[in-house]
Amino acid sequence: MSSLRALVIGSGLVGSEIGDDLARSNTFSEVVVVDAKAENLARLKGKKIRTVKTNVFHGSVLTKLLEDSDIVCGALPGRLGFEMMRKVIGAGKDLVDISYTPQDPFVLDSLAKKNNCILVPQCGVAPGLSNICVGDASRRFSKVDSVRIMVGGLPRHPRPPLNYQFVFSPDDVINEYTRPARIIDQGQVKFTPALSGMGEMRFPGVGELEFFVTDGLGTLPTSFPNVNEMAEYTLRYPGHARIMESLRTIGLLDTVPIKVDSSSIEPRRVVLELIRSLSHATGKEDLLAFRVEVRGRMGRRLGEVRYQMLDFYDPRLQATAMARTTAYTCTAVTHLITQGKIPRKGVVTPEELGTDERLFRFVKMFLKARGVLLRIRSLSK
After folding, report:
1. CA distance readout (Å), 14 to 19, 120, 168
2. Handedness of CA 300, 184, 169, 202 (dihedral sign)
3. What domains lie within the chain, and their CATH numbers?
4. What is the pLDDT of residue 271?
5. What is the pTM of this model?
6. Calpha distance 362→339 (Å, rounded)
7. 137 within 8 A of 144, measured Cβ to Cβ
8. pLDDT tens-digit profile of 326-374?
9. Cα separation of 10 and 83, whole Å?
10. pLDDT digits (tens, 9 = 90+) for 253-292
């Protein structure tokens, strides 16, 4: 058995499955999982796991944890992710992170290179696996023309009015409805309001769904600046987007506190708690619908590569589809690093990994071994 030790920072719905999956591997002798909440740490089931209840931003706690670790997986909410990444890379530790931070991860490239370590940012399902797929598609074309990513974590048994359940950080979910979305339109990087570009589609095995633009491209616009069209869409059951649009319009998704009688209340906090209670009513069973469509040119021919996945809650592991697909993408890349398969230091994006056929195949087979099946279809004209 290996003597490697992994550190997982954050034990939420996804972070806990990252910890458990690493602990099931023979690669690690110990997996330390840290979180500020005891109820989050209680999710963990692995025998090789040691839990630490603490706030990693207090004092020298993180420094000590990093000293005893060989590799780190970050699973904090987006608002906390960048500062944690900076501290981990500053300590010279390799890091695979799933948080979607508002800050540009490329600003940490020089620090990572200076400290001879690897940072793979935004390495969840989308961004993350979606980017890996785009990278794989790009090596099949002489020129990529368009990228369309469609992803949604949904309840298996939806209940009105929202037909939704939280399957990752609630704050980050709400950000999907409020944060302007970066897209590429006619070759230009632009920002469009969240919830714009609404449409409907039929997803095999699920049925009718709606989609709308969200800010989930991650580092793709930087990596592929010459693409004509690029956008990421979130999938929901029909009617959900209009409800969230109404909540946003009247200010219920705002973070600025308002005065109610003698109290100061942040509207978003109230909505989060109400949605959380509705989410519990749908039960644990969820599904993850995932599609990436990349169109481009192979010489004179036009072609399309489509990546599609439909995953479901795992009752044996008590792991949601969102946790499985996000966590296993993260742990796959973690194993790439520990096996020395990533050839350079610095910020290495998920899409860069995808451009290497061997690395893409490793991730795909790693997911398949855990029951997550990514299907690929190539079309040409």
Report:
1. 9, 17, 7
2. negative
3. 4-121 (3.40.50.720), 129-321 (3.30.360.10)
4. 86
5. 0.94
6. 11
7. yes
8. 999 999 999 999 999 999 999 999 999 999 999 999 999 999 999 999 9
9. 14
10. 998 999 988 889 999 988 888 877 776 656 689 999 999 9
